[in-house]
Amino acid sequence: MNWIDYVNAFWIGGLICALVQILMDKTKLMPGRIMVLLVCTGAVLSAIGIYPKFVEMAGAGASVPLLGFGNLLFEGVKEAVKKDGIIGIFTGGLKTTAAGISAAIIFGYLASLIFKPKMKK
Q: Is this model's pTM higher than 0.90 or not?
């Protein structure tokens, strides 16, 4: 990797984050709905062939945000359908994203042990 790859990842990832922040500030959408919107957008852009090219150019700047998670889900389903048929619709996304989902659960649990979470009032 050369240094321009890092620059591209930084500015494209930052642009995605800035656009999402504007969406959060200027609309009345709740954060959960915005997250679902991002994952679905990533899956749709992947289905029409745009997002893989975007990931190729931006690297981690495009594959790490939630748009990249949607892309990963779609790619997993596509591969599983080719391999297993229609049952791949149900298994492909989870097989592909299992490591990321597991890490989120484990690290979230560890953080809750360290930081003593409290319910909002």
A: no
